[in-house]
Specification:
69 residues, mainly alpha
Amino acid sequence: MLNADPLLARPTLTNPTLLSTTLEGIRLKAADAAEVWHLLTQNFTVDLDTVAALIPAEEMEPAWLTARG
């Protein structure tokens, strides 16, 4: 992901309720969690810890070892 331009003014989302509402709207447009993060950080200034608390972590599937015979 490219670094955000610090000179470009973006709306600031600090209220968890507004941030949650915005995330729901972005999730409708995004294909996956990475795109949600990208769209959010490109369009808004946010507290990343608050966003991380609102977006559930994707658990990786366990890699099972094949049985040896």
